[in-house]
Amino acid sequence: MNRLTWALADGWTVTRREFTHWSANPGQLIAGLLFPVMVLLLFAYLLGGGIEVPGGDYREFLMPGMFAMTMVFGLEGTFTAIGNDVTKGVTDRFRSLPMASSAVVSGRAAADMLTTVLSLAVLIVCGLAIGWSADNGPGNALAAVGLLLWLRFALLWMGIWLGLKIRNPEAVMALQILVWPIGFLSNALTSPATMPGWLGAIADWNPLSSTAAAARELFGNPGWPNDSWAAAHALELALAWPLLITAVFAPLSVRAYRNLSR
């Protein structure tokens, strides 16, 4: 219990380090919070008018997809922050200190999850302002938020592993660019049925699509017809995909952290 207490305390110290960065450079935090809002307004007011959805209200359809995309875009911030710490020697400095070896990873995870909660809250407020609503009761709405955070938690481990393994700034930049196609290759903004067959199948099985479809169902917002097995079982896949991602990348992240000095 004593070791666990110190591990939690050390992890919280690393988390507080991120809070210090926010207070010293609030512009970066504000820009990160406003970016999903700008994407939301772009699709809600500029591009969404040409997209037909069941029920006829594209904004009702759009919001759960934007929530899910924000969870995926958070992956970029995780591996960039981890990669910068590794490249600049900050992680090695932490490893030389008398602190729990898990603190760097757990502290980063806690800071990113708190950032995600704040970003999601801002996006929900903006959604309410443009006419979106959760029409299936507060319990189902909370369950939808839980599914979104569950996806983000799983992607945290992927981001930590990528940040520990890829230290080249050019490679990090390439990864940042690749996050966008992963987000758009889904049902978040449009129907996979409008894509070529093989591409639509990939979009259907994208973990982002499962979470977005399940969130639409729980929020009571319109979605696409369940034309595929993946679409018909979105809720089950929204639970299973993050579990699989965590089971794969959490051990890989721990191993990569332990092997940093080798």
Keywords:
globular, about 260 residues, mainly alpha
List the helices and strands and how they pair.
Layout: H1 2-24, H2 26-47, H3 58-87, H4 90-96, H5 103-129, H6 138-165, H7 169-184, H8 197-204, H9 207-219, H10 229-232, H11 234-258
Overview of this structure, please?
This protein is mainly α. It has one domain. 77% of the residues lie in helices and 0% in strands. It has eleven helices and no strands. The model has no long low-confidence stretch (mean pLDDT 85).
Biggest sheet overview: none
Radius of gyration (Å): 19 Å
Structural class: mainly alpha
Separation, N- and C-terminal Cα atoms: 30 Å
Share of helix among residues?
Answer: over 70%
The total beta strand count reads 0
What fraction of residues sit in β-strands?
under 5%
Domain module tally: 1
Number of helices: 11
Shape: globular
- Which residue ranges are poorly predicted, with pLDDT under 50 across at least 5 consecutive positions? none
H/E element sequence: HHHHHHHHHHH
Average residue-wise pLDDT: 85
GO biological process, one term: response to antibiotic
Family: Belongs to the ABC-2 integral membrane protein family.
Keywords: Antibiotic resistance, Cell membrane, Membrane, Transmembrane, Transmembrane helix, Transport
Pfam family, one: ABC2_membrane
